[in-house]
Amino acid sequence: MKLYCLSGHPTLPCNVLKFKSTTIMLDCGLDMTSTLNFLPLPLVQSPRLSNLPGWSLKDGNAFLDKELKECSGHVFVDSVPEFCLPETELIDLSTVDVILISNYHCMMALPYITEHTGFSGTVYATEPTIQIGRLLMEELVNFIERVPKAQSASLWKNKDIQRLLPSPLKDAVEVSTWRRCYTMQEVNSALSKIQLVGYSQKIELFGAVQVTPLSSGYALGSSNWIIQSHYEKVSYVSGSSLLTTHPQPMDQASLKNSDVLILTGLTQIPTANPDGMVGEFCSNLALTVRNGGNVLVPCYPSGVIYDLLECLYQYIDSAGLSNIPFYFISPVANSSLEFSQIFAEWLCHNKQTKVYLPEPPFPHAELIQTNKLKHYPSLHGDFSSDFRQPCVVFTGHPSLRFGDVVHFMELWGKSSLNTVIFTEPDFSYLEALAPYQPLAMKCIYCPIDTRLNFIQVSKLLKEVQPLHVVCPEQYTQPPPAQSHRMDLMIDCQPPAMSYRRAEVLALPFKRRYEKIEIMPELADALVPMEIKPGISLATVSAVLHTKDNKHILQPPPRPAQPTGGKKRKRATEDIPDCKVLKPLLSGSIPVEQFVQTLEKHGFSDIKVEDTAKGHIVLLQEAETLIQIEEDSTHIICDNDEMLRVRLRDLVLKFLQKF
Amino acid sequence: MTEGLPVPSAGLAGISSLTMDPECSQLLPALCAVLADPRQPMADDTCLEKLLDWFKTITEAGSSLLLLQENPCLVELLCHMLKPQDLSSRVLSFSLRLTGVLAAQEDCFQYLQQGELLPKLFGEAGPLGGAAWTSPAVRSGWIQGLRSLAQHPSALHFLAHCGAVDTIFSLQEDSSLFVASAAGQLLVHILGLSMQGPAGGPPSLQAGDWPACAQKIVGHIEESLRATATPQITQALNVLTTTFGHYHDPWTQVLWVQLSPLVAGLLEKDPVPAAHSLVDLLLSVARSPGLSSSSCGLWETLAQTLSHLSPTQAGPLALGILKLQDCPQALRAQAFAVLLQPLACVLKAMAQDPGSSGVPDGTVGDSMTAGTPLPSKAACVGLLCRSLAHLELLLPLPQRPCPWPQAPLLGAAVTLLQLCGGSARPACDMGRHLCTLLLGCVRVQRAALDFLGALSDGTGPRELVTQVFAVLLEYLRSPDSSPTVLKKAFQATFRWLLSSPKTPGCWDLDPHALLFLRDLLPVLQKRLCSPCWEVRDSSLEFLTQMARHWGGQAGFRHALLASEVPKLTEQLLRDPESYVRASAVTAMGQLSSQGLCFPPAGPEHHGGQQKSLLVELLHILSTDSEGFPRRAVMQVFTQWLRDSHADVAGDTEQFVAGVLQVASQDLDWEVRAQGLELALVFLEQTLGQPRSHCPHAVTPPVEAPVGPLAQALQPLCRVRLFDFAFRALFDCDRPVAQKSCDLLLFLRAKTASSSGLQESRSSPDVASVEAALQRWQAGDQAQPLGDLEPEVVLAVLRSLDLEGLRGALAESSDHVEKSPQSLLQDMLATVGVLGENEADCY
């Protein structure tokens, strides 16, 4: 069993598991932090961005000044943003049989895999995962395609040149493999390869293994996966949450008794408690709005935004913010808000019960009804006529490199009355803000990450007790900035195995058993013999038939002339193809009784020696030696076959045969 | 009548009526019959308690013997208890206790002895041997009966004779904790009684010569102390603790000298059994004035105990030792080291250079860290919290250890807070482990913040004080601080700001504190917007405290006015949570008093906005659905009136009239009572009398009011103060009526000496007012009094029996229902003996 690790990002995993005869890809996350190296794509021409000075080498060489621009001491690539793909060279991806998706954030690289690697398998995911995943992809494609950029920089990627660049460009990994965003056509084609699954549904893969998605409690339709054969069980835990938010709670019980538990997608901000952060978010939002400022919340169009809107729904009246408009701007805003209301079966119990009342499960429906929350596909169009300040705007993309957020950053960045509140934990907010510096607006970092923290992981592992834990290397040591926080790492026994990008792990357990079916008529023919209380044995002669990873014992072909009336045993012996079977022996030889028997049969001068493993019976007169050990008996005599056979028969008298 | 008991003497009846009124005497036989009847269950045993209390009062005031002779039904009741029957355990228990109360007087005891009633009730023949004994109530009644009875030498003989002491010994192990504890108490009492000596003279100081009963008890204690079972040792220690707490005669020293080797012997066991009880005993002995501690080896025992007990057990002992007035210095040092030990461990674990913690480690081993692996989280947290609480208790005491390690303790508190908050940077494994244990621990955070606040009374090196403010700011900022932790952080911050060094001759904050304030105000702004109402509330309280202390100081004013805090506070007047609104009202009242409401935008806005606050508060007073904000408004208004706030001073009469009118309609009595407080302030200001030290004291005025009285009373009439006060006089809530009564008495006393006003006692106005007041008293307050003339007011004031009313109001509201007669009637009524329930149901 091997694990091929194609992604180095612990929360955007992409691993391939080779288990039995199957090749299973676990998630295909897309690392979008690479876009932070690029200049933002403004929706409308930004004089500030277009007038940024080109970057030149220390010696004054300015051959890169078209590709690289400098802003407040940072250097950015002036080109269409590109993404860092999972490793494609480590394993031939056309051999991947299935891809299991755990949540909509972990499928963003799917079109790159399904459309460009020769992949011909099936993708499994839950319905909300596909639908919301589609929205995220659609938004991404839309954000990038609607601002076509003529220039595509590639010179800087040359290894010799990259070395000369300042950080972080210098340290960017695998820049040659960075790719532009996929097209909507590719998205549609990729999504068409997905097969819908429901929680606890058992899916047979070629008869070899069975995969089952379980609720992971993190997002709508998010799943952990159980991959099991008859005798082995691998759990894949990715992006799980034990907090009570909108999704169905996490199913922990089904993870028990795993041989291997692959653990990814823990919280990215282990020191921030989501409750505290939500409080912080509300306080800062109110503070800004009360002072007449605007609040910008860069966010994804689905996920935490539902919880934030729910908190605000409870908070705005109490904070006297009822008259403040909330805007949600995204090409998929409408779909996201509406989809969330129709996936009732994927929601937590409280929200499910609302559906029967019937009420919309999320209160943002009421916010929309009362005009407190308005949503727009883009800031062009209706929005510009409705726009009223002070206001709160939720919009993408959290990287601040594309999407409507770029416009608001340019618009509001100059006033200290305004605040940008970062809630998504995927991007470093300081890096995200770098191309907007100098910035007068206030920046608040309230990352809300509901995924498991290390305390919860420790409890989970105690509860489900896997034999082995495999996780990204980042989880096996405290974060570099907080090296003293020994609590911020996975602590389990035996220690977790760690992996990093482009590594192949041999998982530490061997398959020892395989299940074989016996045909009824063959089973009927068995004559079990009890050799110990509770343990019976029977010999079986059959033909092993293997097809589609299923093994079946079938009765052997009958001989041409049936020998009716004879004992069954004879019948088997008569089969010409089969070798004559020696009976199997069991039991142990009591030395004293054996010696007595020997004496009875005329052997004298018998000596018994104890050895480490058993006994040696010496027949000095006959110059013969009988070595009796736990699992073997040897009779050593000098070319006296008659004697040997006599002795053998005496030994056999003490053993059971079948 | 029971055989053997003498017939009551009729000649004494006249005297006994002093203790029990005839109505009760009449009801008593019926009640006794009910109690004796097993078919009439007493549902409510609080009645029996009250009944017993009543008998106690009677017997304390008079002769029990006479009571029995007067009321033979009582003896009958007691005799009835001896008959085999299915009696309720409550009644049996009551009877045993009543017997004890009665037999406390020796003559009554003898009387009951004659009838063999006592041995029958308390001996083997009584409930002791019967099925009723399985009820804890009966066992408890038996003990309490004996406890009451054991007051005289005859009782001692009786106890010895009937073998009660052995039963008490066994009851010490009773399954009911109450019974077991009472048994212990009774043993102490009997020991004390027997040591008083038959003639009241001092008993022998030789233990061998002590009375047999005392020897028996001491012998039992000795035996228990030698026992291996912890419960037995605990009982013995508890009995001794009570003994040394109650009796300080010379014999107690003899007792201690005799028993101390056994007590010290307990320390040799591992673990020390009954450690808590042992600590209690040793402290009780040490505090006893009857013992000369130095002569009987107590200090050595204490020192030994300190070093033998675990840190958790030794903490209370150490604190107790440090509180002792006279105690050897070495022992105090040892005790202090025990208290400091956990904090010393924390400092050591976090020190870059081990061994430089600065806290005296003392002689005890490294007990918190002793025994690897480290103690569990619960043990570590418990120990730290206790240690902090003990040190905090010690801090204000005059006998606290000197020198007080202020700086290391400050360092320890700061370090603990950093550990809990995750900002500490431990250098060693021990520190890292501690970090993992304490991270996010709210209990330790609360205890450490309390302790840190308490430490603000002392000074500290500047560097440490900077750290204190830094850690406080960290807590105030942290989104993870729980509301209670945040509240304590605010409290500690305020205390530290108060203690920050002041420039001589200037009450303003020192430059460092002002710098801190600059960081603090943005945090406060954010907290005022918190979604958690507790946080908003404690932020407002903190703001009010700060404004009260530094509102007049330029530095503070400048910083506050430059911030958004006043504006946000004003917005919280409309908070959905009533507590927050109330705190916002108080805060705005305070800010407004000091001109801190709004930044000085311009003179034209200033007045307008200030005015609107008055309007806004009046609006809250008249419309807010919750009581707390309305009460807060009344307090602010009263304070404004007292301080002659600019808005109020403009047209005081209109202000007072408006407020009183709204307050009189309020459903919350506290608002109405506060209205009277405001009326009193106005009255004092109007009559020109400086406010007396006690506002409600009815003292004749030292001098006559300035100007003619009528003129002085006119404003009071104009604001309809009397309408309000008279209405309040008949308020259904007693505190309001009392306050109004005090106010009117105060006014009457002030006007008494004045002769400048003609009273119109017989005018038709007076008559109509009096008629209206009578209707009001009867509950019909619909009709207003209308405009009153000062003369009419004075006349009415004099005609009212205010003193009488005050007397009636001073009686507790249940004084009628509390009478014994009412009690007896109630008890009879519940079982339906009385045809009609005449008693009040309450």
Automatic annotation (TrEMBL), chain A:
One annotated GO biological process: snRNA 3'-end processing
Annotated ranges, domain Beta-Casp: 305-433
Taxonomic superkingdom: Eukaryota
Entry-linked InterPro entries: Beta_Casp, Integrator_9su, IntS9-like_C, Metallo-B-lactamas, RibonucZ/Hydroxyglut_hydro
Chief location bin: cytoplasm
CDD domains referenced in this protein's UniProt entry, alphabetically: Int9-like_MBL-fold
Cellular component terms per the entry's GO annotation: cytosol; INTAC complex; integrator complex
Sequence segments annotated as region (Disordered): 549-572
Keywords on record: Cytoplasm, Nucleus
Subcellular location as annotated: Cytoplasm; Nucleus
A Pfam family hit: IntS9_C
Alphabetical list of PANTHER family matching this protein: INTEGRATOR COMPLEX SUBUNIT 9
Family membership: Belongs to the metallo-beta-lactamase superfamily. RNA-metabolizing metallo-beta-lactamase-like family. INTS9 subfamily.
Function: Component of the integrator complex, a multiprotein complex that terminates RNA polymerase II (Pol II) transcription in the promoter-proximal region of genes.
Subunit structure: Component of the Integrator complex, composed of core subunits INTS1, INTS2, INTS3, INTS4, INTS5, INTS6, INTS7, INTS8, INTS9/RC74, INTS10, INTS11/CPSF3L, INTS12, INTS13, INTS14 and INTS15. The core complex associates with protein phosphatase 2A subunits PPP2CA and PPP2R1A, to form the Integrator-PP2A (INTAC) complex. INTS9 is part of the RNA endonuclease subcomplex, composed of INTS4, INTS9, INTS11 and inositol hexakisphosphate (InsP6). Interacts with WDR73; interaction is required for the assembly of the RNA endonuclease subcomplex in the cytoplasm.
Protein name as annotated: Integrator complex subunit 9
Classification lineage: Eukaryota, Metazoa, Chordata, Craniata, Vertebrata
From TrEMBL, chain B:
Any one cellular-component term (Gene Ontology): cytoplasm
Coiled coil feature spans: none
Keywords: Cytoplasm, Repeat
Main localisation: cytoplasm
Subcellular location as annotated: Cytoplasm
Presence of keyword Nucleotidyltransferase: no
One BP annotation, GO: DNA damage response
Keyword Thylakoid set for record: no
Top-rank taxon, per record: Eukaryota
Name the record gives this protein: BRCA1-associated ATM activator 1 isoform X1
